[in-house]
Amino acid sequence: MPSPEFNAIYQAMSAQEPRANVSIEELREESEQKAAGRILAPNIKVESIDPKKAGTDCVAMEWVVAPQADRSKVVVYYHGGGYYRGSVNTVREMVSRISAASGWAVLSVGYRIAPENPFPAAVDDAYAGARWLMGQPGISRWATGGDSAGGGLALAVMLRLRDEGKPLPHGAVLMSPWTDMSQSGETYEEKAAIDPFISKEYLDRFAQMYLAGASVEHPWASPLKADLAGLPPLLIQVGTAEVMLGDSRRLAEKAQAAGVSVKLDEWQDMIHVWQNNGPGLPEGVSATHQIGEFLKKLGDS
Questions:
Q1: Whole-angstrom Cα distance, residue 101 to residue 289?
Q2: What does the DSSP 8-state code read for residue 22?
Q3: How far is CA 60 from CA 15, 129, 221, 233, in A?
Q4: Catalytic residue annotation
Q5: Contact predicate 146/130, CB 8 Å
Q6: What DSSP designation does 145 have?
Q7: Which residues lie across from 46 on neighbouring strands?
Q8: Angle between helix 24-36 and helix 88-102 axes, rounded to 10 deg
Q9: 223 falls in which pLDDT band (50, 70, 90)?
Q10: DSSP character at residue 39
Q11: CB distance 212 to 121 below 8 Å
Q12: What pLDDT digit, counting tens, does each position of 165-217 carry?
């Protein structure tokens, strides 16, 4: 049974105007305001990196590091937001819990967003952030990850690294990843009545905005369309009450068929990226603890 805290969030989201009808400016402001009041995990250190001095075109980069974290082990993390909103601010509290749970440092990477900067600007920036980390001294293990669009970016970066013959991360954490910009999975219809936040109409709107004429079949835009062979172990977390459930199921199935180690965890009754609803949501805390255990195992392997 979902917790009372989750039920309160679900009811509040269900009462909102459909997200497909809200302006981009309002949605951007909404996500920043939602994140502003959240308290980070105890004794977290946040260190901003000047992207230009680092030689990248990223919008922002910052370290989010728990006091006990081993800074030789790093998660390169990409925020979600449909490629049109979100920032390192909107995931800072959540990634602070990931750092605390895993004992890994997190490098949170911001990227250019649409419609001002359409595809492949976000992929270029995400890739640049990963390449910067790979060039830093003393890194013994690294992983990548992201939520929603950020999950899609994490996959795109790994595909690009693989195809260019560059070293891959040791694993990836994907939270409700957006993997198919055609919105063709069966759960878009099956879960439409119970998903309080995401809809096919919502994603169609922002996919068109982000692609700006590029093909929906491009593997960096829709990693589900790609050859996934050679990718490192994946942890996929997804809620059973979200329309994007099928994206994660199909990704897991295709990756496993390509020989990739995949752990698909479907969280009963959870909604899109429930993990990012603050430290007061028990299901979100439990999910980040699971991520921590996955990363610890990567660190030991």
A1: 5
A2: S
A3: 33, 9, 21, 27
A4: 148, 242, 272
A5: no
A6: E
A7: 64
A8: 40
A9: very high
A10: P
A11: no
A12: 999 999 999 999 999 999 999 999 999 999 999 999 999 999 999 999 999 99
C-alpha 145/C-alpha 158 separation (Å) is: 10
Backbone angles phi, psi at 103, to 5 degrees: 80, 15
Between 99 and 51, name the one with better pLDDT: 99
Structure-token match 């921590």, residue found: 292
Buried b (16+ CB within 10 A) or exposed e, 110-121: bbbbbeebbbbb
Q: Which domains occur in the chain, in start order?
A: 4-300 (3.40.50.1820)
3-state secondary structure of 96: helix
Q: What b/e sequence results for 50-67 when a residue is b if at least 16 CB atoms lie within 10 Å of its CB, and e otherwise?
A: ebeebebbbbbbbbbbbe
pLDDT of residue 207: 98
Q: What tokens were used for 132?
A: 């910067």
Q: Which residue carries 């996934």 as its tokens?
A: 228
| pLDDT for the residue numbered 86 | 97
Closest CA to 35 of 202, 292, 279, 199: 279
Nearest to 251 by CA among 268, 276, 234, 267: 234
User: How many other C-beta atoms can be found within 10 angstroms of the C-beta atom of residue 15?
Assistant: 8
Count, residues in the chain: 301
pLDDT in tens, 249-278: 999 999 999 999 999 999 999 999 999 999
Of 199, 198, 222, give the one whose Cα is nearest residue 272. Answer: 198
* pLDDT value of position 19: 80
Structure tokens at 73: 């082990």
149-163 and 121-134 helices, crossing angle to 10°: 60
Residue whose token pair is 């595909």: 159
